[in-house]
Write a structure and sequence with these properties.
Number of helices of chain C: 14
Number of strands of chain A: 34
Distance between the termini of chain A: 22 Å
Chains: A alpha/beta (about 675), B alpha/beta (about 400), C alpha/beta (about 280)
Strand order of the largest sheet of chain A: 10-7-6-18-29
Oligomer: heterotrimer
CATH topology of the largest domain in chain C: Rossmann fold
Structural class of chain C: alpha/beta
Mean pLDDT of chain A: 93
Strand order of the largest sheet of chain C: 2-1-3-4
Number of domains of chain C: 2
Largest sheet of chain C: 4 strands, parallel
Low-confidence stretches of chain C: none
Strand content of chain C: 5-15%
Largest sheet of chain A: 5 strands, parallel
Low-confidence stretches of chain A: none
Shape of chain A: globular
């Protein structure tokens, strides 16, 4: 027979005013198995908790019901108190007689009867509760960071500096991401490469960072603390261990006119190339789509010239396995493709802006390269069509973003700022030029941000039109940008020499596939989902997988870096001990009864259920069964609801416990 | 003395949204009637239809089920799974004539204290108008005889011939057919004449899962037009391997029609409920329906579970109701319409009507063809953003 | 092929040259037009700014009539009409709205009818069929396809082509072997809505359209809207007087198609246009 103690709290007047606590105690004491039922003014206070502990000892209680406030408020408190008196904490239940009773029911009689019934439900539940122990999961204290842009670099360095090994995987031949190609950064106008490249070098030289460039995550297996990652190291045709980066190879490569990815097609590169001078690793890669040797077995000059024999045309993709305990996703963004052709039929392009049709209509990242000292024009603003310096330049904000008709309803967040920066930098370079900005609203929340925009307008004389652009056409060699200024109420037409379109940020290519491998959710636009928008902003719903930077939503550099550090600290928290402790209130299978229909697998939001086989000692298959991975299960119980034979159950919310509560109402 | 009827409401709520919404109602002192009892569960995805039935059994006059709004689930998608099940459970209750005004669904977030208060107020008030819930008393004269045993003749010679070929070619180790009394398991070509020319309404796929049949090796079964779909479902549910079981089709394909179901649905709900109460009152819980169903392969049926007793095991009115609801709902997206349960029922309850109701709901709402593609996702255990929810507050 | 036909007021009145052209051209392609019996106003008039319900009920009645007469597909050659019909088709996807409108128009209404514009009819006939039906090559034409403000808009309702940078008319003409030019003002406003109220604006807008088409090498405009045609054709002498624009014929899409299919200009009613169709051939 259970020895249950019922403790009723007055909560001062809060409960006692409407609930006759003494009478509830009297009624509770009559329930079979209840050894003592007493009330106290403040159960959560120190003396209240002492009373609880004393009674547990003196009455030799083995289960406890505290009738007071919401379990969300004090269940942990009372479980701890009971644990100190030697009771397993999961043998403590609460009855919510404050929020769900005394505060909402003014009638004393009704409230008292309801309170008594709530206590009875909890008594019946606790009678069937089973002692539970927290689940321990071993941790591989090693992290994977996917993507080595500024967010990935920051996260990797933070984790590595914290003392843990990091595997850093980057898809491109060099780390650095989008930031490496930017000119200067708002709102301080410090040079992007000047602040980023030292960090890149640090990554390259860090003893605890294992860098895989030109590599992608192929497969992810396992769960928090115990992931196995398969990485595809794409064929580079250059052994980066042997290569010294001397440059003999690319100097002799005859194929000079390949549009440079790093310059977004504004400049050219060879078939064997280092994407940019400060690349890490500063080792070349051969483009197997254009290289004459690889395409038609010609040329081969670079191989002959290489003093260290680092070039091998026989190179192949390699698959590498790494074991890690936590994962940071920092895959960043790409720009919305402005032209008519769109990757999905949910998106619609701007045929009317002539991007792709007129050479002098470019996007914002292309303009960054025109501004950058390391860019194809060495930092001089010269337009692509004829190399002339544009005297009138138009910037169009919100291209793709905030436009339901084009399929992206969200605000791309950073375009207002970089457009102001573009207008400013342009004016600094072309003193007699005029910048025109077409905008919807100026969104410049951030430290020093609004002042920055004001400077662009007031000091550098950028002309701002609160207007959408309806059409960009070419007439007599001029780009005609048409809109309607909604502040003056007049149509505007600007004759421009160069037009820069601030295209929306979209998640990088392939992020959805990666998200599926990692079992992380993503929104309708493909941005990865955080676990909670406010309280768990860098966690995902898969334990041990964290996100940072623009893969989550459009972000500027400071925000990406802050989030990267946050993710890194979450990783270090995961690694704080050798074992992870998890709440034991998770699902479990009665494997003897399981009929192996696996309906639970489809219902599990966490893919925590796997197919398992039970074998006899001689290896014969006895039966198949579902099995719950305790590292992944979060305890929602959806599997229990779909299990026809109820071979599945949730510890702490077992069928027996729940039915006992319901039957207590009979 | 006319006393005001005070309904009893049981609310099954999720821990993270609705329970907190109710907490907030308390914190902000939003008064509502004291008739509601809240049962806290981790997620609306955990809330099982058996719980709802149990609540009515123990005397609830109405039940409220509530969880997080779509997109807000603490466990990502638990509420979508819940919604999907409710979408199928409601049509089943409807054909039973259950008063749907007693079953309420709501999305109530942790911030929606007022919605919680208003919902409880409305549910209490509406239930007060309806009066107490009572399972209809079964008519005393409902102890009718079962229907005539089912016999259907078919051309046995062709089936025997095919069975012989298969056994001779060692394509299979055993052919399961209809014998003179029950099924026959033919393992030698010379025995094929034991296959008789009348089938008894059994779906022979029901024998495939049995240990002794499995031990016989590779099997072929005689299949009536609707039977073969069972193999697809069994494969979908990992009970048999793809293509492992051969079939010998017999009989002319008929056409399924829903006219009986529509006729039943034309009755007012209360009359339907009363009619079913009469039908169910005859049930002796012999479980023949379960025994012959190829889909009832659980190692231990939920009806036999005793900790806790989910379904009253003795043939009481409420126990029988719970059993038949459970049986039909467990067939959602699985029943292939072979009709074996109907033929097997010794007291002639038209169980097929319940199966059809769920079957039609699956087909219409999810465009799901049960017996078509073994790789297709079962409609329970998945969800779609577009699942309708006009019945949810 | 039999297609339901909703002419609307324009095609039975001021723009009956459009109807003549349409019937001649589609007749050549074996498209039979079945005019809705007892059709009424489409609601694009003052109704939509005065009484929302009325502006829904008018096209709803026309759709209900089409259903009653088993016309599952309905050509509405005037973009104002097709927009009104499409709008209400979208509205009645809502069952309550459908029931209400059905009660108002006192006819059953299921929303079965698919509303098509002229371009879609050509697409339905099939570009290959069009190409093989060409008898008279129109090699000297350089057409500027002018869609106007309504043919592709509003984009939520009219979804057959890109609202800002449409291409479908060009594709039809190309199939017929007629050359088109790439120009800038395909969807600009021609000012037809202001014809009576503000002639200055109308002339300015028309001028811009004509001038840009000519600057891009066009020798004629092609439209699929009676309003555009009236405006650009009838007002052109005034535009020329004020802005010095050189004259330029304005054709209906069915005119050019008809010519390519071997019809005479008189059969298509081209001789009834204001601007003389000096055939460049």
């Amino acid at each position: 027979m259970a020895r249950i103690g019922v403790f009723l709290c007055w909560c001062g007047e809060n409960i006692a005013r409407t609930v006759d606590v003494a009478r509830v105690a009297e009624l509770s004491a009559q329930i079979p198995g209840v050894r003592c039922a007493l009330d106290y003014k403040y159960m959560c206070s120190d003396p209240g908790q002492s009373l609880l502990r004393e009674k547990i000892v003196s009455e030799r209680l083995d289960r406890v019901v505290v009738a007071s406030c919401s379990p969300h408020m004090h269940l942990k408190t009372f479980r701890k108190a009971a644990e100190r008196a030697g009771i397993n904490p999961y043998l403590v239940e609460m009855a919510n007689i404050r929020e769900h009773c005394s505060w909402v029911h003014p009638d004393r009689e009704q409230a008292t009867l309801k309170a008594a019934e709530l206590v009875r439900m909890s008594v019946e539940k606790v009678r069937h509760n089973e002692p539970l122990r927290p689940i321990k999961v071993p941790v591989t204290r090693r992290a994977l960071v996917i993507g080595a842009g500024v967010a990935g670099i920051q996260a990797a360095l933070d984790i590595a500096d914290g003392g843990y090994e990091v595997v850093l995987v980057e898809r491109e031949p060099s780390i650095g991401g989008k930031m490496a190609g930017l000119s200067e950064t708002f709102p301080t106008l410090d040079c992007s490469q000047c602040i980023l490249t030292p960090r890149m070098v640090e990554v390259g030289q860090h003893p605890r960072i294992k860098l895989y460039t030109f590599s992608e995550v192929e497969a992810v297996d396992g769960f928090i603390g115990n992931f196995t990652i398969t990485i595809r190291n794409k064929a580079r045709y250059v052994d980066i261990a042997k290569c010294t980066g001397c440059g003999e190879c690319w100097n002799v490569c005859p194929l000079k006119k390949n549009p440079s990815e790093f310059d977004y097609g504004m400049g050219f590169r060879r078939a064997i190339y280092v994407p940019f001078p400060q690349a890490v690793p500063a080792r070349p890669v051969i483009d197997n789509k254009v290289c004459a040797k690889l395409v038609r077995n010609g040329c081969g000059l670079c191989e002959k010239k290489c003093p260290t024999g680092a070039i091998s045309f026989k190179d192949e993709d390699r698959l590498i396995e790494e074991k890690v305990g936590a994962i940071v996703v920092a895959t960043g963004y790409k720009l919305y493709s402005i032209g008519k052709e769109q990757p999905s039929d949910k998106l619609h392009g701007y045929g009317e802006y002539g991007y792709g049709k007129y050479k002098d209509v470019i996007d914002s990242l292309q303009f960054e390269r025109l501004l950058s000292a390391s860019g194809p024009t060495s930092g001089e603003v010269r337009r692509p069509s004829d190399g002339a310096v544009p005297k009138n330049i138009v910037f169009v904000a919100c291209v793709g973003s905030r436009d339901n008709a084009k399929g992206l309803s969200y605000c791309s967040k950073i375009c207002c700022m970089y457009t102001a920066k573009h207008a400013m930098l342009y004016k600094h370079k072309v003193h007699d030029g005029q910048a025109h900005v077409f905008y919807m609203d100026i969104r410049s929340g951030g430290k020093g941000y609004d002042e920055f925009v004001r400077r662009a307008i007031e000091q550098d004389g950028a002309r701002y039109y609160r207007s959408r652009v309806s059409k960009i056409t070419q007439e007599n060699g001029k780009l005609m940008v048409r809109g309607a200024d909604t502040l003056s109420g007049l149509p505007v037409t600007v004759e421009a020499d160069l037009v820069v379109l601030a295209a929306a940020m979209r998640p990088a290519d392939g992020v959805q596939e990666l998200a599926r491998k990692l079992n992380v959710g993503y929104d309708e636009f493909g941005f990865l989902m955080e676990s909670h928008p406010k309280l768990r902003p860098v966690e995902t719903n898969t334990g041990g997988v964290f996100i940072c930077g623009a893969c989550h939503s459009p972000k500027d550099i400071p925000e990406s870096v802050a989030q990267a550090s946050a993710a890194a600290s979450k990783v270090q928290l995961t690694f704080a001990s050798e074992e992870l402790t998890r709440e034991p209130e998770i699902a479990g299978v009665n494997e003897r009864m399981c009929a192996a229909c696996f309906r639970c697998m489809g219902a599990c939001p966490y893919h925590a259920i796997e197919r398992a086989e039970i074998h006899a000692r001689n290896g014969d298959l006895i039966k198949r069964t579902a099995r719950v991975n305790p590292g992944l299960c979060m305890g929602c119980g959806t599997c229990v609801a779909v299990c026809p034979s109820k071979s599945m159950d949730i510890a702490g919310f077992t069928e027996q416990e729940i039915y006992s509560m319901v039957e207590a109402l009979a | 003395m006319s006393e005001v009827f005070e309904p009893r409401i049981v609310a099954f709520v999720c821990n993270w949204c609705t329970y907190l919404g109710a907490d907030l109602a308390g914190t902000t002192r939003l008064e509502y009637p004291a008739n509601v009892r809240i049962v806290r569960l981790p997620c609306s995805g955990r809330i099982d239809f058996n719980l709802l039935i149990k609540a009515f059994e123990i005397g609830a006059d109405a039940v409220l089920v509530s969880g997080c709004h779509p997109g807000d689930c603490h466990y990502n998608t638990g509420n979508y799974h819940a919604r999907r099940r409710w979408m199928l459970f409601r049509p089943l209750l409807e054909v039973l004539g259950f008063d749907m005004r007693r079953l309420h669904f709501a999305w109530i977030s942790a911030a929606e204290s007022r919605k919680f208060q208003q919902t409880v107020k409305q549910v209490v008030e509406e239930t007060r108008q309806l009066g107490p819930y009572q399972y209809p008393a079964p008519p005393t004269d409902s102890y009718g005889a079962g229907r005539e045993p089912h016999k259907n003749h078919f051309d046995a010679a062709a089936a025997q011939q095919r069975a012989r070929e298969m056994l001779e070619a060692k394509e299979v180790d055993v052919v399961i057919g209809y014998g003179s009394s029950g099924p026959v398991f033919i393992r030698r070509p010379e025995d094929v004449d034991q296959i008789t020319c009348e089938e008894t309404g059994l779906n022979l796929a029901a024998y495939l899962g049995r240990k002794e049949v499995r031990a016989m090796g590779r099997a072929a079964i005689l299949t009536k037009p609707m039977d073969a779909g069972a193999l697809v479902v069994l494969e979908r549910e990992s009970q048999i391997e793809s293509g492992a079981v051969k079939t010998i089709p017999i009989g002319e394909p008929g056409k399924g029609d829903f006219s009986d179901l529509d006729a039943l649905l034309a009755l007012p709900p209360a009359e339907r409920m009363a009619w079913w109460a009469g039908e169910f009152a005859r049930c002796t819980r012999c479980y023949a329906c379960r025994q012959v169903c190829p889909m009832c392969y659980c190692e231990r049926c939920i009806a036999d579970k005793n900790r806790p007793v989910v379904i009253d095991t003795s043939p009481t009115p409420v126990g029988n109701f719970a059993w038949h609801v459970t049986r039909a709902f467990h067939l959602a997206g699985r029943c292939v319409g072979c009709g074996a349960c109907n033929h097997a029922c010794p007291v002639g309850i038209d169980l097929r009507l319940l199966n059809m109701a769920v079957h039609r709901a699956v087909a219409e709402q999810f465009d799901f063809n049960v017996g078509a593609d073994p790789k297709a996702e079962s409609p329970i255990g998945c969800w779609a953003p577009a699942d309708h929810e006009e019945f949810i507050r | 092929m039999k297609i339901g036909y909703y002419p609307g007021c324009a095609l039975h009145g001021s723009s009956n040259d459009y109807e003549q052209s349409l019937r001649a051209c589609l007749g050549r392609l074996d498209v039979e037009l079945a005019e809705i019996q007892d059709w009424i106003c489409c609601g694009a008039t003052a109704a939509h700014s005065l009484n929302h319900k009325l502006s829904q009920a008018l096209p709803a009645r026309n759709l209900a009539l089409a259903e009653q007469q088993s016309l599952d597909e309905l050509l509405a050659p005037c973009p104002l009409c097709s927009m009104q019909l499409l709008k209400v088709s979208a509205d009645i996807k809502d069952t309550d709205a459908r029931a209400e409108l059905s009660a108002i128009v006192e006819l059953p209404l299921e929303g079965r009818t698919r509303v098509l514009n002229l371009i879609e009819i050509f697409q339905k006939v099939g570009l290959d069929t069009l190409a093989s039906a060409v008898t008279t090559k129109q090699e000297s034409i350089q057409a500027a396809c002018y869609y106007g403000c309504l043919l592709t808009r509003p984009p939520q309702i009219v979804t057959f082509d890109d609202p800002e940078e449409p291409q479908s008319m060009e594709t039809v003409l190309k199939a017929l072997g007629i050359k088109t030019v790439d120009w800038n003002f395909k969807t600009e406003c021609c000012g037809a809505g202001m014809t009576m109220a503000d002639e200055d604006t109308v002339l300015e807008l028309c001028h811009r359209i004509l001038e840009n088409a000519q600057a891009h090498g066009a020798n004629c405009l092609v439209v699929a809207c009676p309003m555009c045609h009236v405006n650009l054709d009838m007002k052109q002498p005034a535009v020329s007087r004020r802005h010095g624009t050189s004259p330029m014929p304005v054709y209906y899409l069915s005119d050019l198609a008809g010519l390519a299919l071997g019809l005479a200009p008189e059969e298509l009613g081209i001789n009834r246009h204001f601007m003389e169709a000096t055939w460049p051939a």
